[in-house]
């Protein structure tokens, strides 16, 4: 919705007020009117035009600000839509919650916390890693593998996939 017409109404209202103010000023100063009435009238017109110019530029300012807000709003909406398009990956360890994935770590309320600072893991990359490990295991075994986080004091924790039936063990991440 554009509010340009609304701004015009405001300009008109303000101008009417100015006009009324000018008229009442004239009434207070009747001596200004007289033989030079026409000249005064001309000056007044110039002042009036000046006010109009000023109000028009104010109106432009209002419109510009409105458009800036609109632009911001659109950016916000598109960022929200982008956020919704992000692949949600259910935590493979607890199979309950969505993994929280950012540029620094992957985490889950169940306790999974894997530092990914140097690996640039996006949800797409992680999904691909999980799928490739799962299909790798499925080539030889029909059982469901389990995911776990292996943590040691020396190395940063990593996500492991393992299967007790076929002794498959691999690092996902
Ligand atoms: Zn979890
Ligand atoms: Zn297996």
Automatic annotation (TrEMBL):
GO molecular function, a single term: zinc ion binding
Swiss-Prot/TrEMBL keywords: Metal-binding, Zinc, Zinc-finger
UniProt xrefs under Pfam families: RPA_interact_C (PF14768), RPA_interact_M (PF14767)
CC terms in the record's Gene Ontology section: PML body
RPA-interacting protein central domain ranges (all copies): 10-81
Superkingdom of this protein's organism: Eukaryota
Signal peptide, first to last residue: none
Domain RPA-interacting protein C-terminal: 90-170
GO biological process, alphabetically ordered: protein import into nucleus
Protein name: RPA interacting protein
The organism of origin for this protein: Mola mola
